[in-house]
Amino acid sequence: MTIAMQNYLELIYELSLDGKKARVSDIAKQLGVSKPSVNNAVVVLAKNGYVDYEKYADIKLTDKGRKTAEFICSKHQTIKQLFIDVLNIDEKIADTDACLIEHVISDESIKAMQVFMENYQKNKLD
Q1: pTM of the complete model
Q2: What tens digit of pLDDT does each residue of 30-68 get?
Q3: Where does 3-66 sit in CATH, by number?
Q4: What separation in angstroms does the CA of 65 have from each of 51, 62, 80?
Q5: Secondary structure of 9-30 in HEC code, one letter for each residue
Q6: Domain HTH dtxR-type spans what residues (predicted)?
């Protein structure tokens, strides 16, 4: 999956949290792209089984799409928290950098970061 498709999927997931609806217009506005661009991306995501979508309807994640989006979001959060909590990087910079890194980091590296952060948080509480 391309970086752009990962970003679309992640945003659809974030927009659909707490029972909210993911709509083409909201995605276009947040990503600063045209509605036809979003529509094209969503069609690709639907063809690959990540979302259910009919033109002019809300976009719904499939189980595959939800699991993939949750993993992408967890990578983002892990990297961001490592940068903020351990490296003392400004939150805005940490968020921007995490967004860039989450797409290219290996699963092995992210899992190691997650273990590190779990231990770090546990040790902070002791």
Answers
A1: 0.83
A2: 999 999 999 999 999 999 999 999 888 899 999 999 999
A3: 1.10.10.10
A4: 6, 5, 22
A5: HHHHHHHHHHHCCECHHHHHHH
A6: 1-62
